[in-house]
Amino acid sequence: MAAPLTLVLIVAVTIRAVLFNSSLAELISERVEVVSPLNAWKRVVEGLALLDLGVSPYSGDVFHETPLIIYLFHFVIDYADIVFMIADGITAVALYLAVQDYNKGVFRKQKYALEADRYPHDCLELIRTPKEMYYIPLKVALFYLLNPFTILSCVAKSTCGLNNAVIALFILSTIKGSALLSAIFLALATYQSIYPLTLCVPALLFLLQRLYIPVNVRRPSFWLFTMQYAFMFLGSLSVIVCLSFFLLSSWDFIPSVYGFILSVPDLTPNIGLFWYFFAEMFEHFRLFFICVFQINVFFYTIPLSIKLKEHPVFLIFMQIAIISIFKSYPTVGDIALYMAFLPLWSHLYRFLRNIFLVSCVLLACSALFPVLWHLWIYAGSANSNFYYAITLLFNVGQILLVSDYFYAYLRREHHLTHGLYLKRRDGSEATLVLK
Amino acid sequence: MGLKDGISPSSEALDAASRWEATEVDLNTVSYNGEKAAENLRDEAAEMYDSAHQLYNDQFEEELVIRPLHSGDIYSSFQFRTRWDTDFFQKGKKVTDYRLFPKSLGQVITKFSVRELHISFTQGFWRTMQWGQPFLSAPPGAELWVWFQDTVPDVDGAWKELTNVLSGIFCASLNFIDSTNTVQPSASFKPLGVGNVTNHKFLRYAVLPREIVCTENLTPWKKLLPCGSKAGLAVLLKSEKLFHSSFHSQAVHIRPVCQDWQCTSTAWELRQTLSVVFDLYTSGQSRREWSLFKMFSRTLTEACPLASSSKIYVDVTDNSQGELFEQSPASPILSQAVVLGDRRTYSVYDLLTPDTFGTPRSLNIQLRWKTSDAAAGLRPLLHGERYVAGYGLQTGEIHTLIYNNHPYRAFPILLLDSVPWYLRLYVHTLAVTSKNRENKPSYIHYQPSKDRLRPHLLEMLIQLPPNSVTEVTVQFERALLKWTEYTPDPNHGFYVGSSVISGLVPSIVAMGTNSTQEGPLFSSFFPCKEESTYFVRVYTEPLLVTLPTPDFSMPYNVICLTCTVVAVGYGSLYNLLTRTFQVEEPSPSLAKRLANVIRRIRGVPLL
Questions:
Q1: How far apart are CA A28 and CA A43, in angstroms?
Q2: Contacts with B, A 20-59, CB within 8 Å
Q3: What ipTM did this prediction achieve?
Q4: Mind listing the pLDDT tens digit for each residue in B464-490?
Q5: Which residue ranges make up each domain of chain A?
C-alpha cells in the first residue's frame, strides 16, 4: 500500500511544482475564491515586511495570521513553496493513516456484530467487504492531493493548507487514540482559526468509545476523562497563546486575529455567505446578524453529537463541512478537506438522493466563479449580484451535499437495525420516510 | 544681501533712484487741490495708526505680486500679514482687546492651545511644469495642519473640536475631517514659526481632496481682514472674477514669530494669502495683455488705511530692457528679491504714496506684450506627478514620479503619502527606482491603516540623483465597503489626497537666512537655515480611484436570499436531527375517506 501512496504523492508534488513555476501561480494567488484576507500569502509577506520596518504587524488591518505563522515563515520564507507542499503531503498521509485505522475499527465492529447476529438477514448487501475497503485510504489521499481545490490553494500558498494539516494530524491522533496529541493538535487548530473548537466533542466521543467508557453523565469515569481531555486542551491552548504573547510581547494579535474572524470587518468577496450580506446590512442590525451567523457554526454541534454519538468520525466530517460552509472567510481549501472524506462514505452511495444534481451544481459554480468575477471586476458588464448569486448557489449545493450524506448515513444505520427490504403491514413493499 | 527693499518709501525711492538711473522719480509732483483734503485725512489716519500701533503693538501689511507666467497666464498672489506682539497664553491674563487681529481666530488659538495653524482651500491644480513654482503651494481641495501646544492633554479631542469650529468659521466641510483622514506626519511638516517642540504627537494633518472652493469660503476669509473688502488690495477680490480662473487658492497661516532679530519674545503672525491664475491669453481675444481691471473688474483707489505697508509687485525679470512688454503706468521703483532660489526683479507700486494712483485717483496697472510668442521658462528643479496604474477593480498600483531637474546636484526630499484605508497598501511591494536602479530610501516611516479608523501614512526620505526621475510604486487592493459607506455617487470614485514632496532644493543664488529682516512678504514665508538651499513643498495630483460597489438597490433582497440559504441549511439539518425513519403507510384516498364518513353516519361497516 505504501507504493501507490508514494506514487500519488510524487504526482501531486510534480503538479504543484510545475504550477509554482508557471505564470499561473501569480494569477491563482490573487483569486478571491482561493485566498481570503485571513490566509492570503500576500498578507503574510506584508506582515513580515512590517516586522522588518519595525512596525507591529497587528497595528494595521492587513495581517491577520497568528504569531506562530509569522515565526514559522520568518525562518522558512524562502522555502515557502516546499512548506506548503509538505503541509499538503502531511495532510494526505495523516488522513490516509487515520482512515486506514478507522476502517480497521469499523471492520472489527462489523465482524463482532455479524458474529453476534445483530444484523437483519436481508442486510448482507450493506455489509462492507475488505475488498472494497482496501482502497479507501488511498482514495482519501488521492481525493485530497489531486483535488483541484487543494492544488489551487497550495499554489496560492494559502495558509489554509497549514490549518488543514493541523486538523488532519488532530484526526490521526484522535483515531490512533492518543488523547494528549489530539488535544494539542486541536488546540493548535483552534488557535489558528477558532472554529475547530467544535471538533472537541467528536474527538471526546471517539476517545470515550475507544476506552469503552459509556457516555453517561452519571458515571464518574465519563466526567474524569472529559475533565482530563478539557484540561489537556485548555492547557495546551493557553501555552500556545502565551507563547504567541512572548513572541511579540503584546496581546494585539487577539483582536486582530480572533476579533477579525468573529466581527467580519473585511468584506472582500469570497465564496462564503458573509461578505455580501454584511455589505448590504443595515447598520443597526449588524451586530445581531453577526451573532446569528457566527452562532450558526457552533450551534449544530450539540444536536449533531447527540444524534451521532455512536459515530464520532462521521460527526467530525459533518462538523468540518459545516465549518467550511458557515465560517466567515471560507476558501476552497476548506472545502477540499471535507471533500477528502467523501471516499470514506462511498458505501452510502446507494442512499444518496441528489448526488448528481449537487455535483453538477458544484462543478458549474466552480466554473462560473472566475467568469462572473471577470464580468464584474474587469469587464464591468455585470455587477456584484452576479457573483453573489453564484456564491449562494454554491453554498446551497454544499448544504445539499452535506445533508444528503447525513441522510444516507442515518438511513443506512436504520436499515442495519430494521432490515433493508421493509414491508408494509399489508405486505407490500414499503418506502421509508422521515417523520 | 538678498533683499534690497527698504522700509520707508522715501528712502527706498531714493535708493532705487540712485541705482536705477533710467527710472524717472519725481517726488515733488504737485498734488491737485482736490486731493489735498484726502491727503490730510490720510495723514491724520496715519498718525492715529501710529499711536494705536504703540498701544496695541500690532501692524498690518498687504501686498500683491503679479507674475506673468511663461505659459501666457497671469499669476496674482495676495498676501495680507497681521502681526501682533502679544502672548495668547500668558498666565492669568486673557486677551480680550483685539484690534487688527481677527477675534474669531484669536479665540480659536486660545481655546484650543494652537501653536500653529495652516489652512488652505484650493480649486484647480497648480501646473508646476508650465507655471513654475508658486510662492506658497497648496493641494487641490482643503488642507489643514495644526501644531498644538505641548500642554494639550487630549490632542485628538482638541483636533476634532477645532475642525468643527474652523468648519463654521470658513463655511467649509472641514467637519468631515475625522480619524480616517487625519495623520501625524513624523518629518514632513515641521513648525514654521519659533518654538522647539518637534514631537509629532502634537501635529495633525488632514486633506479633503474633494472639497469644492467657492464664494462662501471667500467671504468669511475676506472678513478676517482689518479693512474687509472695503479698502486696500482686498477691493480686487471679487468672487465673480476670482472663480473664473484656472487656479484659485486661499490660505490662512497662523504662527508665532520672533519680535526682533534677538528673538527674546514672540509675536503672532497671521498671514492670509490668496493666489489666482488667470488665463487671459485665451480669453483676451488672442492678444496678450492684461490690466488690473481686466483681471479683477476693479481698479485700486486707495490703500487700506490701517496698513503700514501696501505694495504691488510686478515681476519684470524677463523684461529688464522693456523688450517684452510695455508697462503702464511705469513704476518708479524697482526692487530685487531672492525668492525660490532665484533673484527676481520687481517693479513696485507703493499704495501708501498718493502719487501712485495718478490723477483720476485710480490705479490700473497694465501690461501689453510686444511679441505674441511666449518665452520658454526655466524648468522647476523639483516636480512631482502621480497616477494610478492597473485595470479592474481588484488591485492597482500608485506611481509617484519625482523629478530632479538640477543638472548636477543631488538633493534629498521627504515624500508623504496619506492613503485612505479602503485602498489597502502592501508596503512590501514598495519600490523606489531612479535611473533604472533601486534607490533605497534612507528613512521610512510607515503606519498601516486600520479599517474605518485611520489611513495609511507613508513617509520616506529619498535622495534624488541629479537630472533624474525617481519612481515610487506601491501596490494596493481595493476594498469592498459597506453600502452605507459609499459617497452619493459611488461610481465617480474616491479621491485620494495629494502626495506631499518637501525638499531643500539647491539655490542658484544665496538665500537670506535672517528671518526677521524686512522683505517682501512673498519671499519670507519659509524660514531659511542655509544660504545654499531653499525649502520647497510640491503637491502632486490627487487621485481618483474607483472601488467595486455592491448593488445599492437591493439590501432587502440580499438579506432575504442569504437568510433563505442559511434557513435551507438549518432546515435540512433540523429535519434529519429531529425526525426518525418510518415506514410509510399509505393514507386512504379522498373519495374513500368521504365514503367512510357517509358510511359511519349510515352505520354501515367501513370500507
A1: 15
A2: 30, 32, 42, 45-46, 48-50, 53, 55, 59
A3: 0.95
A4: 999 999 999 999 999 999 999 999 899
A5: 2-344
